[in-house]
Amino acid sequence: MSAITSFLAIFRGRRLATFGLIWLLIVVVAAVAAPLLAPFDPLDFDPMVRLSEPGWPYIFGTDHFGRDSLSRALFGARMAVLIGLGSVLVALSTGGLIGMLSAYSTRLGHVLMRLVDVLMAFPALLLALVLMALLERSVLNTIIVIGVVYATTTARILFGLTLKLKNEVFVDAATCSGAGHASILFRHILPNLISPLLVQASFIFAFSQLQAAALDFLGLGLPPEVPSWGNMLSEERIYITRAPWLLIFPGALIILSVFSMNLIGDAMRDSLDPRFKDDIAGV
Amino acid sequence: MALLEVRDLEVGVAIGGKVLPVVQGISFDVEENQTLGIVGESGCGKSLTSLAIMGLLEGSMLRLTGGSISFNGQDLLALSPRARRAIMGDQMAMIFQEPMTSLNPVYRIGDQIIESLRQHRSMSQRQARARAIELLDLVRIPDPERRVDSYPHQLSGGQRQRVMIAMALACGPKLLIADEPTTALDVTVQKEVLDLMLDLQKRTGTAIILISHDLGVISETCDKVVVMYRGKIVESAKTATLFSNMSHPYTQGLLASIPVVDHDVEWLNAIPGRVPLIDEVLPGCAFHPRCSFAQASCATSPPSADYVSDDHLVRCHFPNDRPSGGEAGGDA
After folding, report:
1. Residue B23 CB: number of other CB atoms within 10 A?
2. pLDDT at B321
């Protein structure tokens, strides 16, 4: 069975998760094809049509600069996917490496995991705010900060799993066959961590959407000129009574995306959980 | 010069700042083409001895506190980690007790054999795969061309242990350490796996250290036997000598514990008591609390290991003053 069919098998009989997957695909398509799909330039403003109601030609209406909301939402999908993928990459690589190394070398683990503990003591949003306050507002910095925040939980999870795996007999057997430390970590232990890493990735993707929106809303995320769902909320919040659609559309997009990713993550966790798998494969 | 020479091996466990000895004064030789059996109850230090030889103590609470291990004329303990890794898997290999967990569950078995092959030999993926199939055939895995692509969970326990043997023998090692290789298997499969190991030994000339708590298995397979009790060698001899003239009450007790099928007995023979814990201080013989021949002096002075005949070593104050036979365990 190929990787794709076995991935799709996860969604068989899980209607909500399938909905999540479809929504995710829509967002990705919107992100990739935003310049083709957007009816207007997301940065072009026309004061004559500011705060238009949803209708034709402005399907989602226009904001207080007269920019087309739908076009901005489409380009916002770009940011959502970019930030999601970016922070997943940062979180899994740094957190994963820290967790695995800490578990493998107890002495290193004492230092690194205490550092992780300190970072985990802060609420995620607060930590992200502090880090962003120290850095410049940019797409890259937002990705790094959100990635670092979720690297802590990834490190914790991989620390525990690696601690268990490194005492497995097959690791001793690998040592006996002459495998070095790097080979044991990355060729013998890491492949056993792929399922939990995938599950973790889907949750980090979901949380990164919320986190990015929150940072944008508080004015500490992406630069204000970048069209993102969070920035749309942030800029138009004072018009909530006059033009509520300006907040309803991006808000709904954020909620749907976070919800979808969580549904996908739940489905993956249920079907990839090693304990569950062991029950079937073990005997 | 023997292939493997272990001298005065000592292993300690670090607990609360102190290092308690768990294996003491272990010395033995293994010659090429020979099988050495190490027997004893759980907790006697059999496995620790093998782990020390393979260099697997690193990173745990256990450490090598003394002694020397020389393999093929090289002092293993003086080698750099890299040089030692080059030997492990190539010239010495190990089979573990648990066939269920000693294979990596996410890799196909063929890939695991190929991995250990390519670690030491420069071969192409293709050659290594052909060799892996050959090895699987050698350990009598049916349909090796297809099985080479199986995952461990698709194999039975006996098959997995045979795959382990194939992996261990991949590079044609001079020494194979088998730590209770058959304990986790069915009795019928046990026999097959043991026969397979001995058969392969005949063909390749590999020396084997067989660790077991089963004297029956040892008597059938080994040339020399070392009996361990609480981290020390209490008796060692050639198998024939040992079984004709068991001199240590512990060895006699182990033999007496094997149930005899055609005797109708109400109670199974067992050695009373248990192996003392590592932090229990015993000034005398470690076995005296369980020994039915113990005298007053056994409790106060530790016996030394003496030769009662040519290469028959016994650690007992009264090695010859007792009726030999199967009554050492007393009536439990």
Report:
1. 28
2. 61
At A117, is the secondary structure helix, strand, or coil?
Answer: helix
B-facing residues of A in 77-106 (CB < 8 A) are 106
Question: What pLDDT sits at residue B59?
Answer: 65
* CATH at residue A243: 1.10.3720.10
Distances (CA, A) of A276 to A9, A101, A269, B60, B198: 16, 27, 10, 30, 39
Distance from CA of A262 to the nearest CA of B (A): 26
- pLDDT of B6 over the 70 cut: yes
What are the residue boundaries of the structural domains of chain B, listed by start? 27-61+74-91+174-332, 100-170
Q: Which long-range contacts (CB under 8 A, 24 or more apart) does A136-143 make?
A: A137/A220, A137/A221, A137/A222, A137/A223, A137/A224, A138/A222, A138/A223, A139/A79, A139/A82, A139/A83, A139/A222, A139/A223, A139/A226, A140/A86, A142/A83, A142/A212, A142/A215, A142/A221, A142/A222, A143/A82, A143/A83, A143/A86, A143/A87, A143/A90
Vertex B37, ends B34 and B39: CA angle to 5°?
175
pLDDT of residue A195 exceeding 50:
yes
Domain housing A95: 14-34+67-278
3-state DSSP of A151-194: HHHHHHHHHHHHHHHCCCHHHHHHHHCCCCHHHHHHHHHHHHHH
The CA-based diameter of chain A, rounded to the nearest angstrom, is: 76
Q: What is the pLDDT of residue A64?
A: 84
Q: How many CB atoms lie within 10 A of CB A239?
A: 16
- The C-alpha atoms of residue B241 and residue B262 are separated, in whole angstroms, by 26
| CA dihedral sign of residues A225, A228, A232, A233 | negative
Q: Is B59 on the interface with A (CB under 8 A)?
A: yes
For a pLDDT cut of 90, what percent of chain B falls above it? Answer: 36
Share of chain A above pLDDT 90, in %: 63
Give the three-state DSSP class for B15: strand
Question: Are B102 and A172 in contact (CB < 8 Å)?
Answer: yes
**Measured between CB atoms, which of B106, B116, B164 is closest to A191?**
B106
**Overall domain count for chain A:** 1
* Residue of chain B whose alpha carbon sits nearest to that of A166: B59
- Does the pLDDT value for residue A281 go beyond 80? no
Please report whether residue A131 resides in a domain.
yes
Question: Token pair 């089979």 is at which residue?
Answer: B95
Q: The domain B27-61+74-91+174-332 belongs to what CATH superfamily?
A: P-loop containing nucleotide triphosphate hydrolases (3.40.50.300)
Indicate if ipTM > 0.90.
Answer: no
CB pairs under 8 A between A and B: 70
pTM as predicted: 0.82
